[in-house]
Every structure is written in structure tokens, then in C-alpha cells.
Amino acid sequence: MAALNEVRAAGGVVWRPTDGGTEVCLVHRPRYGDWTLPKGKLEPGEHPLRAAVREVAEESDVRAVPQVRLPAVRYVSEGRPKVVDYWSMRAVGTGGFQPDTEVDDVRWLDVDEAVRLVSYPHDAEVLGAFAALPAVTGTVLLLRHARAGKRATWSGPDTARPLDATGRAQARALAPLVALTGPVRLLSASVRRCVQTLDPAAALLDLPIEVAGDFDEPVGGQQPEERALAAAARLAEFATGGQPVAVCSQGKVIPGALAQLTGSAGSTGSTGSAGSTGEFTTPKAGGWLLAFTAGGLVATDRL
After folding, report:
1. What are the angstrom distances between the C-alpha of 63 and each of 29, 112, 224, 302?
2. CA–CA separation, 216 and 231 (whole Å)
3. Span 60-89, pLDDT tens digits
4. Which CATH number fits domain 2-131: 3.40.309.10, 3.30.1380.10, 3.90.79.10, 3.30.470.30?
5. Which residues are CB-contacts of 133 (< 8 A; sequence separation ≥ 6)?
6. Among candidates 87, 77, 68, 88, which has minimal Cα distance to 120?
7. Which residues form the Nudix hydrolase domain (predicted)?
8. Reduced to 3 states, what is the DSSP secondary structure of residue 291?
9. How far apart are CA 146 and CA 140, in angstroms?
10. What b/e string do you get for 173-210 counting C-beta neighbours within 10 Å, with b at 16 or more?
């Protein structure tokens, strides 16, 4: 019963670089007379990440790109349990803030000043978690293709197996989530179902889909470990470019690649087989937001 009454919300620690370091965004709400991080309630059926980006834009008029999931906050609001998911977000544009009855002021402050100004200890804790992050050099949205029926019922070559009706609907639903991460490139394994999964996002973003065989499942004569290493190396390569990238790959590649990137390949007992029960097993139309620093992968956020 408690879960049914739980209020879900999402928001962000929005940051921008300055000559002296980094500033973060706080908003003032006249109804409560408080200074807080921009956030708001999820709409019915809305993904928390989409809600976080939307609420940041609505409250602060800042367009931001999510990078790293921060600790969620739990508290009681108006007699109901409330959970707020937060992401670190890089500000990429503003529309010109106009005060209203919900938010009447926005301030950009360094983290120490923001910690002193916020009205709630849990906001200070989220800011502390943000401050502890190393500098993110790049992000990659890594997706597994949407549903494509059963291999046994497809008479043609498996590389040509298309998305089914459910898969096409999943691909359409993924497109706005892909767009939130601000990719400048879309890359896909060479199989048809991976390319089709990115088609709606490509149309939405007006970007071409680049085919990258490094993200294909192993074929005859190839070892799964080799394919995992190749995919991991390519993901790390994209991360050094400083611009977000979205990649669609396959179920026998993603877990092994993530295990390589996190240094857990020797402990998972799997290089990413479809039946793997490892921590990086990814359902169809599922994915990960990966954040990289100069030292490598720093965060894996399951979406």
C-alpha cells in the first residue's frame, strides 16, 4: 500500500563551467519560501530521466543534458512518502528565465555557496555527491535493440531479421529518451533490428545512423571475449571525444563490454551471453547511460 501512495519526482544538479570552476543552479519557490534544486513530479507513465530534464527546463528555463545518476532522496511530503531521483546535468542552453508563481528566482552559485543556501539537508547531501564526482569527459547511451520476434520463426538470414510490431513501438518510445542525452552521433551494430531501433531517434534528431561492426554479436570463429573487448574499446574511444553518443548493440555483446569497462570481467563469470544473469544483462529495448572520465568509466546508470 505504501508504494501505491508514494510520490515520485525527479530533478537535477545542473552545472556550468566558469573561469573559476563550476556553478550549479538553485531555484526559489515563493510558495514554500525555500531554495532548492530544480525538480518536480513525474507525469503518468513518464520515465524519471525524462521528468528530470523536463522539470529542470520548466523550473529554471535551462536546457540540460544528463550525465551521472546521483543518490535518490526519500522524505515525507504532505503526509505521503516521496522519492526524488537526481542526475548531474550539464547546462547546454537557456531560454531566458521569467519569474512566476512556482519559481520566482534562479541563482547560479559555486557548490559551497549552494550548500549553504539550500533549505534542506537532503539537498546539501545531493550537492555533496555531485561535488565528489570526477570531471565527466563524455557520455554514451548504450541500448540493446528492441523486440524482433523469434529467431526460429524467421526464414531469412538472422542479420536481416526486423523489429516486430512491439519492437517498432519500443523504438518509437525510446527516441525521446535518446534525444534527452544530446547525442551528436548515432551508431548501430550492422544487424537490421539494431538499425531499426535507432530509426525514430535518427528522424527526431536529424542524424544519420553509422554502422559499426564492433557492436555485432560474435559469428563463427570469433570468441565472445574478443567481441566484448572490441566493443569496450570502441565505447571508451567515443567517451574521449567530449560529445554524447548513442549506440545500439546486441544482447551477447553489452554485458561483456560493460564487464570489461568496469573491470569486473573476471568476476562476472560471463562474457555476455543472452542467458547471462550477470549484473549487466540488458533486456530488449533497455539500456545504460555511461559516464566516462579521463580515467575510464565512472558510472553505469541502468535505464
Report:
1. 19, 23, 40, 22
2. 9
3. 999 999 999 999 999 998 889 999 999 999
4. 3.90.79.10
5. 68, 88, 298
6. 77
7. 5-131
8. strand
9. 18
10. ebbebbbbbbbebbbbbebbbbbbbbbbbbeebebebe
Percent of the chain that is helix, strand, coil (3-state, to 5): 35, 30, 35
140 backbone φψ class: left, alpha, beta (φ>0; ψ -120 to 50): beta
Q: What pTM does this model have? A: 0.90
Grid cell locating 271? 562474457
Q: 253, 146, 248, 138: which is closest to 202 by C-alpha? A: 248
Backbone angles phi, psi at 282, to 5 degrees: -125, 125
Cell numbers found for residue 266:
573476471
| CATH superfamily for domain 138-302 | Phosphoglycerate mutase-like (3.40.50.1240)
pLDDT in tens, 172-219: 999 999 999 999 999 999 999 999 999 999 999 999 999 999 999 988
| Residue 235: strand, helix, or coil | helix
Q: Which grid cell sits at 187? A: 551508431
